[in-house]
């Protein structure tokens, strides 16, 4: 897992995913200015990256555990 996903100020996967869902909902609903839409888009990109980092970290941990089982 990267440092970004272990920082105490970093949201959990579930928190980041929930916020990402809300960002997408707001963008799909429209009614925001161009500046607001761009800010939402940028936040969504950061949240999506964070979620992917969490998933990649979990995958690495699983592969490490499964790899240990093969060595035993």
From TrEMBL:
UniProt-listed Enzyme Commission number(s): 3.1.11.6
Compartments it resides in: Cytoplasm
Matches recorded under Pfam families: Exonuc_VII_S
Gene3D superfamilies, sorted: Exonuclease VII, small subunit
Keyword field: Cytoplasm, Exonuclease, Hydrolase, Nuclease
Primary subcellular site in the record, as a coarse category: cytoplasm
Keyword Cytoplasm: yes
Top-level EC class as recorded in UniProt: hydrolase
Enzymatic reactions: Exonucleolytic cleavage in either 5'- to 3'- or 3'- to 5'-direction to yield nucleoside 5'-phosphates
Superkingdom, natural source: Bacteria
Cross-referenced SUPFAM superfamilies: XseB-like
Function recorded in the entry: Bidirectionally degrades single-stranded DNA into large acid-insoluble oligonucleotides, which are then degraded further into small acid-soluble oligonucleotides.
UniProt subunit comment: Heterooligomer composed of large and small subunits.
HAMAP family listed in its UniProt record: Exonuc_7_S (MF_00337)
Family per record: Belongs to the XseB family.
Name this protein carries in UniProt: Exodeoxyribonuclease 7 small subunit
Gene source species: Nocardioides aromaticivorans
Lineage: Bacteria, Bacillati, Actinomycetota, Actinomycetes, Propionibacteriales
